[in-house]
Amino acid sequence: MSILVNNISKHFGSQKALDQVSFDIKQGEVVGFLGPNGAGKSTLMKILTGYLQADEGEASVANCDIEKQTSILQSKLGYLPEHNPLYSEMYVREYLQFNASVYKTDKHRVEEVIRITGLSPEANKKIDQLSKGYRQRVGLAAALLHDPEVLILDEPTTGLDPNQLVEIRALIKGIGGETEENGKGKTVFLSTHIMQEVEAICDRVIIIDKGKIVADRKLTELQQKGEQVIFVEFDYKIENVALQRLPHIKDIKSMGGFAYELTFDTQEDMRPAIFDFAHDMGLKTLQLNRKAKNLEGLFAELTRK
Ligand SMILES: Nc1ncnc2c1ncn2[C@@H]1O[C@H](COP(=O)(O)OP(=O)(O)OP(=O)(O)O)[C@@H](O)[C@H]1O
């Protein structure tokens, strides 16, 4: 496993920022860590990168125990913190060369990461002259310098304009997984509160809310096209055999009382058909809601206050 998190908890005073968090990530997976503000994303990332200590639990990154093997860990891990600290007085190439010497990385690698991150046109500029998008690229370039196995990126696209967003997302997607360009299957764990970002970049999403993991799904599971789920509540009992007569019906789940969760094998909105069906059966429809099966729906359902 590339990242293994086992029952990690962290308190700040009386507040529980992380509550028994567990999951694992395989090599080459690009996983989005999604959650509302204050959910605990940065706290977990700081723990995994050795900037904070957990109160309970254990974790390993690139097969290194995060507490016992910190120096090997740093050689296998690239980290882009949320507030990317850069020396703004330095020139881009100079800053990367400085980092390369700190990490004892081959100087040739500086030119390689400049190319990979699209920094060539800005490489001779001072960092404080760069746009936010290019500063983010410098942070990414620095995180990639020592060719780490695992990349942990804390909100890598915050504050970028739409064009930069597209470029940085493509860059991250290209770094992760097994691509022809890198051929190495880097693992990428990135935090965000933007669902479209997860859909654009990730293979899998882990959703955290109030310090607890509330979902862990493959994106392919969430993109099952051609299905819809509708929650319906009638004012009186109806037999399953009667509900089976609804067009496109695939599954009927009884939700207690006179309520049902109906799955249809079509994208066409089936609410009018259910309404007419109830009317024909002499029933009143008390509730009729289409349940989103996509990421947006799942996120709203799981993190609603
Ligand atoms: N050093 C700290 N001292 C006290 N409380 C903290 C500290 N760091 C984080 N917290 C609290 O822990 C909770 C989780 O914070 P964290 O920064 O991990 O959330 P997040 O999911 O990254 O949020 P955001 O999306 O807003 O960056 C928050 O309520 C935050 O206020």
UniProtKB/TrEMBL annotation:
Example GO molecular function: ATP binding
Keyword Lyase carried by entry: no
Q: Which domain of life is it from?
A: Bacteria
Q: Keywords assigned by UniProt?
A: ATP-binding, Nodulation, Nucleotide-binding, Transport
What CDD domains does this protein's entry cite?
A: ABC_DR_subfamily_A (cd03230)
Database matches in Pfam families: ABC_tran (PF00005)
Transmembrane feature ranges: none
Q: Which family, according to UniProt?
A: Belongs to the ABC transporter superfamily.
The entry's protein name is: ABC transporter, ATP-binding protein
Organism for this UniProt entry: Christiangramia flava JLT2011
